[in-house]
Amino acid sequence: MPELKRLEADEARRVVKAFWRQPRHIVRICLLFGVIGGVNAVIAAAYLKPLSSWLRLSPTVTGAVAGGVIGGMLGVAMHWTVRRPMRRYVREYLIRSGVPICVACGYDLRGLGDPRCPECGAACDPRLIRSEPDQRFSTSPDGEPS
Where are the alpha helices (H) located in the chain, listed in sequence order? Predict the structure, then answer.
């Protein structure tokens, strides 16, 4: 996530851990595992033996392939359901820390005149917009981060 690059490594770890400690995210992942696991059990019970005989493979091999496919689907589903809330959480943390970015898309809002993100058009807090650079992420005269 590009937003995490704005934080020190230890601080980024703390923010991600804080995100995962929220009950709503734990419930979301448990429901996701339960739904996909239940679908996997139903499919395995109904189709594993006929599919094994049709493919002329042992049920073990067919089950392993089906488990891999279901595991891949679970990974993609987790990515879709967790990525957006996590990015928003990190952006809100950055805003609380004084980094002026758009909560909706992550665009840097420093130096803007209008309290609207030019990237996505979302309205933003006018207090976030300021012309001076953020001291926390400033660079030294030779261009190196300080």
Answer: 9-20, 23-55, 59-96
